[in-house]
Structures are given as structure tokens and as C-alpha cells.
Task: inverse folding
């Protein structure tokens, strides 16, 4: 049983650089979600996809953030011109309908912007 | 605007006793609720969920209670074990037909420590 995987697990970058993260969902799951978690807080919703369609974006997702899910499989989250405030854990989750199954999370990508 | 609140940052319990974690919400549109456990350097792990049409759901040592009139839910762990020590998050979903299929709104988390 392969769970949600994320790559890289850790990323350190300098302010102003672009970074890209990848998420591979559980294979039969058609919905994919991105969340961001900062220290002492719960995860905050960023965006989600159903297959390749991006259905909702949080206002937290500034113009510097873009997410894609080509062909409805893996997804990428890109942050352009990183800022120190972007330092956080970026979490990916996937789920499957029908049923009331939960969202299953990957291990996350820890981003540190220097 | 914190729509899901976990007012206790931490809880300490003796092994074998009951752990009760609490969560309050303000958005009356929430119709599906979940509890997740998180260890350091890992993503959240799903524990148990409940739809708003129910007031109780059990799974082994874990029971979730939902009081819709009070907009309150709780997670009971009986008996508590040292391996249960982790951060626990409650989460809620709205507008997805009583499923977690939509986006989740999380509380801030409660650190549970179970002492041997």
C-alpha cells in the first residue's frame, strides 16, 4: 500500500529564489490538496484539484504561488521569488470519492528561506 | 478568524487512564469532522471521523463525540498508551455533502503526553 509521497523532504533556499515541490497521491485518489503549516498552528488550506482541474484556491495563495496537476496524477507547487515568510511545512493530501473517506497526508516538505 | 479552536495547548495523562481532547467550532456549515495525530517530522495521520448526522463514533480505543448544539466535539482515548503521545488536530469540512471531500479547516492542535 503506497501512501502519499512528497519530494523533497527538506528545502533550504535563499530569499528571491524559486522553488518547486512535488506530490504523488495515492494512485486511485482523484482529489489532491495542498496545505501549509507553520510552527504552533494547524495546517492551512491552500488549494485542491479534482483530477487535473484546480477547483479552489485560498486567498493565502498569492500570485507568487502556482500549483498544477497535469494529467490528474502528480502535482507540483511552485513558489516564485521566495520570501522569509514562506518558510513552513508544505503538506499534500489526497482523497477518493465515493464514501466519506478521509484525506490522507504525505510527510510534507519543510521549506526554509534564508 | 479561527473557525476551529482547540483551547488546550497540552494535556498530560497517566498510562492506562482516559485522554479527553476537546475542540470547538463556530461555522454552522461544518458537517464532517475528523481527528488527526501528528508526530514530529511526519504528516498528519487520520484517526477517526464523524458526520454531523451522528453524535458518536467508535474505533477501537478511540471514540469521537459530537454535540452540534454546543458546536463541540471531543476525542476520547481509552486506555491511553505512551505511543499515543503526539500532537492531535481536529479538523472540519463544509459543503461536501457530509464528507471530507472538500477543504479541511484545522484547529491549532493539542500536545498529548502519556506518561508510563
Result:
Amino acid at each position: 500500500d503506497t501512501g502519499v509521497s512528497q519530494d523533497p523532504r527538506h528545502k533550504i533556499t535563499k530569499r528571491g529564489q524559486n522553488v518547486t515541490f512535488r506530490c504523488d497521491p495515492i494512485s486511485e485518489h482523484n482529489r489532491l490538496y495542498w496545505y501549509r503549516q507553520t510552527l504552533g498552528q494547524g495546517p492551512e488550506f491552500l488549494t485542491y484539484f479534482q483530477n487535473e482541474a484546480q477547483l479552489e484556491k485560498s486567498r493565502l495563495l498569492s500570485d507568487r504561488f502556482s500549483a498544477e496537476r497535469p494529467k490528474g496524477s502528480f502535482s507540483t507547487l511552485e513558489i516564485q521569488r521566495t520570501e522569509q515568510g514562506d518558510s513552513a511545512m508544505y503538506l499534500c493530501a489526497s482523497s477518493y470519492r465515493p464514501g466519506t473517506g478521509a484525506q490522507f497526508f504525505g510527510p510534507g516538505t519543510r521549506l526554509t528561506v534564508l | 478568524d479561527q473557525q476551529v479552536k482547540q483551547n488546550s495547548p497540552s494535556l498530560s495523562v497517566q498510562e492506562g487512564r482516559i485522554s479527553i481532547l476537546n475542540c470547538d467550532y463556530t461555522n454552522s456549515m461544518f458537517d464532517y469532522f475528523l481527528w488527526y495525530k501528528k508526530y514530529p517530522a511526519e504528516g498528519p495521520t487520520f484517526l477517526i471521523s464523524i458526520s454531523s448526522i451522528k453524535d458518536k463514533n467508535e474505533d477501537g480505543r478511540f471514540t469521537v463525540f459530537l454535540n452540534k448544539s454546543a458546536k463541540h466535539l471531543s476525542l476520547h482515548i481509552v486506555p491511553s498508551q505512551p505511543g499515543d503521545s503526539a500532537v492531535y488536530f481536529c479538523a472540519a469540512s463544509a459543503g461536501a455533502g457530509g464528507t471530507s471531500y472538500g477543504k479541511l479547516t484545522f484547529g491549532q492542535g493539542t500536545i498529548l503526553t502519556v506518561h508510563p
